[in-house]
Amino acid sequence: MRVLGIETSCDETAVALVETNPWSTDILAQVVSSQIELHRPYGGVVPEMATREHLRNLPLLVPQVLKDINLSLDAIDAVAATEGPGLASSLLIGHSYARALAVALSKPMVGVNHLEGHLYSPFFASRRAVEFPFVGLIASGGHTLLVHALGWDRYIKLGSTVDDA
Length: 165
What we know:
The protein is 35% helix and 35% strand. It is an alpha/beta fold.
């Protein structure tokens, strides 16, 4: 199954194409558009500016990730997008784009929890199957958590910091 993933939870616009089957998950292509320089003069992320950049970037990045591996939209089996947590306006752009794309392609659309994405990303990077239980550290913007993962969607928060995103 090939899934086109869209991430717009804060100020980076990211698109990836992932192929998964019962034995493995592979990242076929990925592209990230950074907004660091855009927000630097303000000392932090300006939500309205981030939203406008997502609107500008998504129509460019989706075709780019497909071109990188010479695939068409018809080769996608599903579309996924970050649902939260994150900046509401940024999430709305990615989620709306993903939903519209899924409807246009008559494909399913799946919402993804941003923090769970961070929790499971090391397994993608190492190409290892997820083995429960494990302890994971999530450090992302305004979310810093130490989590004991007992199973899919079964977590115990061991600790966190008081973040000021």
